[in-house]
Structure formats: structure tokens, C-alpha cells
Design goal:
Blueprint (H helix, E strand, L loop, with lengths): L8 H4 L11 H13 L6 E3 L9 E5 L4 E21 L6 E15 L5 E7 H14 L5
Antiparallel strand pairs: 1-2, 2-3, 3-4, 4-5
């Protein structure tokens, strides 16, 4: 179901709780909401749709990938960039890393470990920040 985008910085500034297998449907809401906003958005965290759980979705070009309980376990090659967010007005400077490695659970609740770089790595870092209550 397409959900409304949360813009309340107090809500967005709180850490998210771990996702559980029963939270799988939140991933579908993220899919639907990202698809509805694909002209101006490449990723989302569950708190952006009012659910304070550790779930993100990332556009990876040909498909959107939902990650449950993602954790960045390795990062290297920092750089400064500017980012925007559906939940905020304008853009802000932030530091990101060119290469990251992430552990997460997929929709079948299977643990995954994957390396990402470039634009995809940047999106994941932005969304994981949301889970920590970090607003760019």
C-alpha cells in the first residue's frame, strides 16, 4: 500500500527497532511507496512511512531491493557529497564512503552479505542513517 511520507524530524530522529519476520509486509509498503515516488526518490527507510523498524529499500537500477536489519560492516574511501531526501527540503552536505559491505536479511529472512560501491553504496548509507535517527 502506498504510504504518506513522514516529515516530522522528531519522529525521524529516533532510532529504529530491529525488524522481525512478521514485519515482511512493511517491505511491500516500501516497494509500493517507492514506486509511487520513483520520479524523485531512489531509496527509503521504514521510518519515512511511519514505521520505526530497521527496514530499507534501495533502487539498484533494474530492481528495488528491500533489506531487513541492514548493518554496514565495512566501508572505505570517504568523499563529501550533497544529498536530498523526500522527508526534508533542499540538499545538505554529508560524508559517504565509495565502497561498503552490508549484512542484512532478505524477504525470505535469509541472511545476506553483499558489497556495494558508488551510487548504490551512497543510497544504502543514507537509508541506514535514517534507521539510526541521523538526518542529513
Amino acid at each position: 500500500m502506498i504510504q504518506k511520507i513522514v516529515r516530522d524530524v522528531f519522529f525521524l530522529g529516533q532510532k529504529s527497532a530491529p525488524a522481525q519476520p512478521e514485519d515482511i509486509l512493511v517491505g511491500q509498503d516500501l516497494q509500493d511507496t517507492l514506486r509511487a515516488n520513483q520520479d524523485r526518490c531512489v531509496g527509503m527507510a521504514a521510518n519515512m512511512i511511519g514505521v520505526r523498524k530497521r527496514i530499507i529499500i534501495v533502487n539498484m537500477g533494474i530492481m528495488n531491493v528491500v533489506m531487513y536489519n541492514p548493518v554496514i560492516i565495512r566501508k572505505d574511501t570517504p568523499y563529501v557529497t550533497e544529498e536530498g531526501c523526500l522527508s526534508l527540503e533542499g540538499v545538505r552536505k554529508t560524508t559517504r564512503y565509495q565502497n561498503i559491505e552490508v549484512e542484512y536479511f532478505d524477504a525470505g529472512w535469509k541472511k545476506r552479505r553483499q558489497k556495494y560501491s558508488g551510487w548504490t553504496a551512497q543510497i544504502i548509507q543514507h537509508e541506514v542513517d535514517h534507521l539510526e535517527g541521523i538526518i542529513i
